[in-house]
Design goal:
about 400 residues; alpha/beta; Rossmann fold; N-(1-d-carboxylethyl)-l-norvaline Dehydrogenase, domain 2; six-stranded parallel sheet; five-stranded parallel sheet; globular; binds nicotinamide-adenine-dinucleotide
């Protein structure tokens, strides 16, 4: 089989996959956001994960609406967003749209792999059913499916896709063989299962475990802070035990941790299971920014020179350091609370320039001496040198979140 992969959804997950695959295969990149495609064609990645040089294509091409191009593919990889709705119910609309799109071009023997994070059963019971219904082709006879969850960690150069294990799952042995040929271009570290639901489960529980562990640290952090015990020292001491696992407290945002527990709890509910523990992590992590707000206000008040009219600068607004992703950013929520209280509050986040965020003017750079107080909310590496200098300047009050 002459494999012609396509990647549908060229965001944080899809773009790196596309870039890797197109080095080996003639690969089609597809995204329904016209401006994303236009930018990528001009070698601009608004997510700032890839510099211009890495966006030079070898065998790949980008498209936004040419079905005739997508039709050439026989191995579709779907990496579209899977958020939750306002009531935390999984929103599968992007997946639905992608399935409708693929079903227009699906042919005999084509393979469709899903990478979007879902709860167990979505690939087989939702996506495959839609593909069958819309294409009039039969699953496991005319076309085949698989699931390969994504572990990409934007901003983390130590765990890039080529260095980490990637799960691939499909119930068909010959499809597994083809999938291995495709995915080995991305990483040599492949781990397989015949059971798609196992792979879907593994993905969500990885994130749930991390969410809960951070939630636990957040709760302990609150207790330490309120009772005037040094949290960092407590953790240092506890870490000396062989089986203590170190996690840091934090404002848990982004597209994965604040979303995936709700996907799994929706699934568990179908079996009459209430996921109290899983959702308890969300409860504390969702409210942590309010605690940090009160803590900040208390700390600011300790400095009598700082008033409501002081010049204050916030550093960083993204959901975590070194990424340009603002989805579910609690730094943004914290900023909004502070904005209500302080008249002269500015924000600098060089990773967010060119992105429009709720009418907030975001500075690309700053001159520290213009401010009375600087609050470092998201510690991007590119602030490093400036922060070292700020710390030396006795005239500027400097605060960090944790
Ligand atoms: N961002 C991460 O760190 C990360 C890590 C692991 C897994 N995931 C999962 O991967 C999936 C994708 O996340 P992401 O962060 O890459 O999202 P993203 O928003 O960065 O990118 C998704 C892209 O898909 C496009 N798109 C949306 N609907 C489409 C459609 N119907 N047809 C074609 N293109 C469409 C969007 O325009 C966008 O460019 C989600 O399920 C997410 O949970 C994300």
């Amino acid at each position: 089989m002459n494999i012609i992969p396509s990647v549908i959804g060229l965001g944080y997950v899809g773009l790196p996959i596309f870039l890797k695959l197109q080095k080996k295969f003639k690969t089609i990149g597809f995204d329904n956001n016209k401006s994303r495609i236009l930018n990528l064609s001009k070698k601009i990645d608004s997510n700032k994960e890839f510099p211009k040089k890495k966006l030079s294509l070898l065998n790949g091409s980008y498209f936004t609406d040419q079905l005739s191009m997508l039709k050439k593919s026989n191995f579709y990889i779907v990496a579209v967003p899977t958020p939750v709705r306002k009531n935390n119910i999984p929103d599968l609309d992007n997946l639905k749209e992608s399935c409708h799109l693929i079903s227009k071009v699906l042919k005999k023997n084509d393979i469709v792999f899903f990478e979007s994070t879902v709860y167990p059963g979505v690939t087989e019971n939702f996506c495959a059913k839609l593909l069958e219904k819309k294409s009039n082709l039969k699953l496991d006879k005319d076309f085949f499916i698989g699931y390969s969850p994504e572990r990409i960690n934007p901003g983390d150069k130590n765990h890039s896709v080529d260095k980490i294990y990637k799960i691939i799952s499909t119930n068909n042995p010959s499809v597994m063989g083809i999938a291995k040929k495709v995915y080995k271009i991305i990483t040599k570290k492949l781990i397989t299962t015949k059971n798609i639901k196992e792979a879907e489960s593994a993905k969500v529980i990885e994130n749930i475990q991390r969410d809960l562990n951070i939630g636990l640290m957040n709760e302990i952090y609150k207790v330490c802070y309120k009772s005037n015990i040094d949290f960092k020292n407590v953790i240092k001491l506890a870490s000396s035990k062989w089986n203590f696992i170190k996690f840091n407290p934090g404002l848990v945002g982004g597209h994965c941790l604040p979303v995936d527990p709700y996907y799994y709890s929706t699934y568990a509910k179908k079996f009459g299971i209430k996921t109290d523990i899983i959702l308890s992590g969300r409860k504390i992590n969702n409210s942590m920014y309010k605690f940090m707000y009160n803590k900040l206000i208390k700390e600011i008040k300790k400095n009598k020179k700082i008033s409501k009219n002081s010049k204050i600068l916030i550093l960083g607004l993204t959901y975590k350091k070194n990424v340009s992703d603002i989805r579910n950013s609690y730094a943004l929520e914290l900023f909004k609370l502070l904005k209500k209280k302080y008249k002269y509050l500015q924000v600098c986040d060089p990773l967010l320039t060119n992105k429009k965020i709720e009418n907030i003017k975001i500075l690309n750079d700053f001159s520290a001496i213009k401010y009375d107080l600087i609050i470092n909310m998201v510690n991007h590496d590119l602030f490093k040198t400036k922060i070292l200098n700020i710390k030396k300047n006795k005239k500027i009050h400097y605060l960090e979140l944790f």
